[in-house]
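Dear Dr. H.,

I hope your travels went smoothly. While you were away I took the liberty of generating a structure for the chain from your last submission, since the lab meeting agenda had it listed for discussion. I wanted you to have the full record in hand beforehand rather than looking at slides cold. The sequence, exactly as received, is reproduced here:
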Amino acid sequence: MAILGFRKKDAEVTPPDPTLAAFLQGASIEVMPRTAEKIADFGAILPKGTRVYVAHIDGTAIEDMVSTAARLRAEGMEPMPHFPARIIRDQATLTDWIARYRGEADVRQALLLAGGVSAPVGNFATSMDLLSSGAFDGFERLHVAGHPEGNRDIDPDGGDKNVSEALQWKQKFSERTDAEMAIATQFCFEAAPVIAWANAIRAAGVALPVHIGVAGPAKLQTLIKFAIACGVGPSLRVLQRRAADVTKLLLPFEPTDVLSELAAHKAAHPDFNIASVHIFPLGGIKTSATWLATHSKDEE
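The corresponding predicted structure, in token form, is as follows:
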């Protein structure tokens, strides 16, 4: 069967590039409660066991987050909810959220991040605060955020001092926890900056595997809007160059080129620390799932 459980007739399907297909094995995707409502059955569009991040936007009720995670679990997915530190008021709130996730959705994995709000509402300001709380003891897998092109919220001067120090701290934490840890990155559009960043953190002693973020197929205007809002750096020029080409302006942008380049680099350098791919479905979950099905390895 095809990796997503459906495919066109063989005569209509272009065989996937095997290097890219291998690189995409185990790819993850993310949803929000309101976007999840548009999907009738995740099991019909994603492989069983797919890791699905549940993004927690400030203002989303925890009840909606937990019910989305429970639904994903029931439909054969592996839910990984976000825990944004700056919207969690205190230890009691964090403990309550975790108890709900574990009790109602059998959540075993979590993405810990500072969150998109500028000021904490309570005791937690960073993912390091969450990790230090002890609340995630017993989780099987914990992911933390990575920023291949920097993050001006963390390093306002445009450098990488604070981001680098945080990664060093998380590396040390990974060495004393039983949970599997990885770095999940912001989405990027160009392979060269990603390769340089991944090599640099590895050389600096950060051995955590990287799950590289890419935007799923979407209109160019949509991607530019999200890229600017999320602070995407040098690789934004890929979109800007495409926008200047009127022959491509109206065509959806796909992550095929950037991932093919990363896949080729991984094939040539097996110890390259990018271990997986995470899809941000900015053009819609079904669109990203279809793209993934088309480019992933057929396991028959």
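Two observations you may find useful: The chain has a mean pLDDT of 86. The chain has one domain: 10-295.

With kind regards,
E. W.
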